[in-house]
User: Which sequence fits this backbone?
């Protein structure tokens, strides 16, 4: 039986598509999303994505502000080691990963903020400016946050 997951596809060109998927695999170059609006399924080429967010709900909590950077937490958890991702569009994601290898096309990240609407995120390496794991992840997160306008 194939699992249906709620997914929000963020494309490199800033488009966003919300829907469900049953065939996403980081090992395949494409998958399909059934949009929320009932329109026909859309074929997605993974390399055109910035990231695929697997979410709890499509609505999220609009009044909630995600925690920027790392929450004081251990350097490793059941979800792996700390990782910080700075995307080309300026977004910073912090979390944990079991599968980061710089030469792969992407990897899964589990958010550091347990209250996030995101369950996990598949990050496409081509959409990143910089990725750091382990102790260097904290350094990257701090640098990016310090560079942001106050």
Assistant:
């Amino acid at each position: 039986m194939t699992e249906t997951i709620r997914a929000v596809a963020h494309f490199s060109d800033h488009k966003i598509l919300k829907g469900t998927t049953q065939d996403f695999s980081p090992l395949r170059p494409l998958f399909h999303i059934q949009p929320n609006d009932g329109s026909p399924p859309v074929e997605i080429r993974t390399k055109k994505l910035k990231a695929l967010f697997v979410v709890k709900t499509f609505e999220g909590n609009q009044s909630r502000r995600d925690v920027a950077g790392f929450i004081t937490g251990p350097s490793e958890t059941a979800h792996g080691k700390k990782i910080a991702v700075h995307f080309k569009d300026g977004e910073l994601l912090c979390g944990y990963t079991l599968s980061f290898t710089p030469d792969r096309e992407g990897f899964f990240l589990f958010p550091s903020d347990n209250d996030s609407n995101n369950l996990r995120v598949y990050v496409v390496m081509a959409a990143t400016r910089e990725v750091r794991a382990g102790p260097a992840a904290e350094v990257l997160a701090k640098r990016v946050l310090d560079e942001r306008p106050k």
The radius of gyration is 15 Å. The first strand starts at residue 5 and ends at 11.
